[in-house]
Amino acid sequence: MQALISRFGGTPALILKLLFLGLVNGLAIWALPQLITSSAWVMLVVLVGATLALDFVLLTKRFIPAKYVIIGAILLLVFQLIPIAYTVSIAFTNYSTGHIGTKQDAITQIEANSLSETDGAVSYTMLPLYSEGQEVVLALTEVPTEDTTATDGTATDGSTDGSTDTASPEPSVQTEFGGSDGTASPEPSVQTEFGAGEVSTASPEPSVQTEFGAGEVSTAVPSSEASLAEDDMNVGVTEPAGGWPPTYIGTDQGLDPVDPGDVERDATGTVTGVVGYKTIPEEAYPSLDSQIASIKVPGPTGGYIVAQGFGAAVELTPVVTYDEATDTFTNTTSGVVYTDNGKGSFTNPDNPEDELLPGWRTGVGFTNFYRIFSDPDITGPFAKVFVWTFVFALLTVLLTFAIGLGLAMALNKPGMRGQRVYRSLLIIPYAIPGFLSILVFRGLLNDDFGAINQMLGLNIPWLFDPNWAKVSVLLVNLWLGVPYMFLVSTGALQAIPSEMQEAARIDGARSWQVFRLVNLPLLLVALTPLLVASFAFNFNNFNAIYLLTGGGPAMDGSSVAGATDILISYTYKIAFSAGRGNDFGLASAISIIIFLIVGTISGISFARSKALREDRT
Amino acid sequence: MRRSLRAIVAAPAVAAVAFGSLLAAPVAHAADNTITVWVDQKRIDNYREALGSSYAGYKIVLVPRDFGKIRDDLATVSADNAPDVISGAHDWTGQLAANGLIAKLNVPAATIKALAPYAVAGFRYGGGIYGIPTQIENVAMITNANLVPTQPKTFAELSTKALALKKAGKVTVPFAVPQGTNGDAYHMYPLFSGLGGYVFGTNPSGSVNVNNVGLYNKTFAANAGLIDQWNKTGLINSKVDYGIAKTAFTTGKAPFWITGPWELDAIKALPFKYRVTTVPPIVNGLKTVPFLGAQGMMVTKYAAEHGVQVGANALVTQLMATPSYQAKLAAADGRTPANLVAAKAVSDSVLKAFGAAGVGGIPMPNVPQMSSVWTSLGGAWVNSTKGAGATPANKAFAQAQAQVKKAIAG
């Protein structure tokens, strides 16, 4: 070892060090502009600080201890402390569905979303052109109005009707496919079957059972391909009776009619250019994208004509307009004024439910924490989940330790036959990836179709009864956790000097007394930190719950929490599938509570285990 | 000593600059003429085939994503890595639009007319259209024609046949509709609607009215007793999850299976004759219709930030709505196109049968409030059909109704 270190001293070490620092500094330089462009100031400070600190500590001859810890410290900062700080900062915001961006984003989005096609507004086909001054302008040609009469408007196409009692207005196609056996039935009924070894007839009319299937010759319909070839382009080769629809040059200043004689058209009648303007090759479109998007042509009905893709443009009028001076939105037709409600939304003060979407992310103080303890919809499930989390983590640790230790002691007898085989067998569950075992168990435990109930002739609702589901979760977690406890117990047992046990026996102690008074205390000195760690791990054992039961079965009185949910899986569900979508703020608040609980318990336990050790030495 | 010190300082500096510029060169932000599209990683090849690699001078970059996560990832992705266009399910529209993550599209009326009306409606939120539907889908009932020679006309008839088969030991699952511990309100919907249930009512304008929750409306309440009956006879059993349902049916151990066109490959590989139909009517006058779903393309708010707004808009509203694109996509992807012309041209008889089974279906609501519906409604089905110890359906669904109302009032 010493030789190895000395070999890596001197020049090779220096080269390695310089290469490493070069790599680090290079990465930092690479990341700098990106962080600046995305305004990630916190990360920028961390990056610059960490890089400089690393350079300084590793290049100077002083700070020998710091050389050993600095990399770990930086990684701790980046991967542990910053996420924690971020979570804490989110917990005090309303970060959730509808509140994810900045206020400026929200205002931009509300303005963009409120642009609507006015009734009877004219649609245009659009062609971007260069003016003489190399300005981009839009050549806008009116689309004949008969196409625009069927504006998108309402979507009352029957099918959106969610109510029940309505008589079914749609053609009842299902009868066509349901129906009786081939016997003469009065109504025409077709029974279509798809199946093995039969040639499809694909004739829908006669009331015969039609069957399809493997070996079926597919009856492709070639006729319709022709109609697909021609896209839904406006095809009008000859000039229509009333003349070509008018074409305009649109700029930010307004619409400027073009003399019909100056409009160039191709064989299909599509406008391809205007005399006096230069066509823009298609390859240049991408580079002009933002420019085209920013052209707002004042239109005839008071709105703005804007490009919709490259071929089309429509006139849009805003439904609400923003007034920067008062920081309010006003509905242009109803006159309703929407004000900043201080909670990240513009709302109508007379009707707080009337809200403009999206809102934005903003600080809400302790609201999220307050909700956990005051909102009955959250408090009820939270309390149940909280208790179960403790029960789950404690029972898991105690039972895995008890069983693991028991097995370790049983197999620790010197001179036992097949000791190695047993030990290897016991480690197998530990060697198989946990998520795989859990998924296998989910299948095995299925109440009606799982192997366990079927083979044992039982009828236990393993996964569907709230209490049995808890038992199942514990059992599967034991299966996963016992090998670990067995391993560490075996190691710790072998470390106990046999003289102490012999001495105890000579003093007249029985086996149980030897275990309780000699082995166990010595084991606990070594294993308490591991037990605490195991508790902390199981407190947040997301996989064991989420993969086995998904937190289910459903808990009465909560649309989010399930009977086997522990805090971390409950938090996950709140973050991603709360009542209105996501609620990252509330989820972060619960995460902080979890962190405090686990931190406190671990802290106390470690302090006590240290005391335990000092007693003994 | 002096010299070595200088070397120590100089070397990392040189290495740093060299390395940094090396890295910076190729990554210097992706050129503005690139439209980045997030698509389902399992189907990326299908999209590539239909879409090609460029459009109107723009380079199209398809990025494979876990489909189920596209919606949530879009909320957290950094602007630099954000897509300009995403493929998505129509029921994401509400949440994405409420978050301001997708851009409203002002689609020409002619384009809209060419697409299945309910599919377009699915992408409507708060008076705007936020996506162009490209594929539509719904569940249907697949019947094993060997086990059930004649298609039952009513659900009662179906029940009798299924239970007789079970009693005779010919099948293990009498009616294969997937649920599992956390429920599956989507696959259960034909039964739910057949009993008179609905999720949300509609406003006169056609938009979803989240204040009209119909999970436990009067009609449904009157019929809910049937659920208890199904539970008692074992016809519907929440312990049947997706895998069990599929395995049971495909191995001939279930006479009926509720599934959608995403199982087309498995369906076509069935070694026995089968029929694709709706679920037969349960109660007179109530239709057993499925939820209708659409998948489509949406333009994100990042398209404008990346300076490809017009191009992305053109790609989605112009190219992707066309019958030729949708037909190409359907050929590659095996789903029914949303474009009516392209849909008519579908020649696959099984796909057509799925389409027929969806007629009159209810477009799955796209409001963000749906997330509480999935858990509550799914949970009500699970609890009322879990065999012994099941909650009476009247109680379970009344509870679900109360939960959803509470969650929405939030």
In words, what does this structure look like?
- The complex is a heterodimer of chains A (617) and B (410).
- The two termini of chain A are 31 Å apart.
- By secondary structure, chain A is α+β, with helices and mostly antiparallel strands.
- Mean pLDDT of chain A is 79; it is low at 147-189, 197-210 and 214-236.
- In chain A, 49% of the residues lie in helices and 13% in strands.
- In chain A, strands 1, 2, 3, 6, 7, 10, 11, 12 and 13 form a nine-stranded antiparallel sheet that branches. In chain A, strands 14-15-16-17-18 form a five-stranded antiparallel sheet, with helices on one face.
- In chain A, helix 3 (41-59) runs antiparallel to helix 4 (64-91).
- Chain A contains 19 helices and 18 strands.
- With 410 residues, chain B is of the alpha+beta class.
- Chain B has two domains: 34-137 and 293-352, 3-Layer(aba) Sandwich (D-Maltodextrin-Binding Protein, domain 2); 140-289 and 368-409, Periplasmic binding protein-like II (D-Maltodextrin-Binding Protein, domain 2), CATH 3.40.190.
- In chain B, 44% of the residues lie in helices and 17% in strands.
- Chain B has 19 helices and 15 strands.
- In chain B, the strands form four sheets. In chain B, strands 1, 2, 3, 4, 7, 13, 14 and 15 form an eight-stranded mixed sheet that branches. In chain B, strands 11-8-12 form a three-stranded antiparallel sheet, sandwiched between helices.
- In chain B, helix 18 (370-384) runs antiparallel to helix 19 (393-409).
- Chain B is globular and about 75 Å long.
- Chain B starts with a helix and ends with a helix.
- The relative contact order of chain B is 0.18.
- Mean pLDDT of chain B is 88; it is low at 25-30.
- The chains are: A alpha+beta (617), B alpha+beta (410).
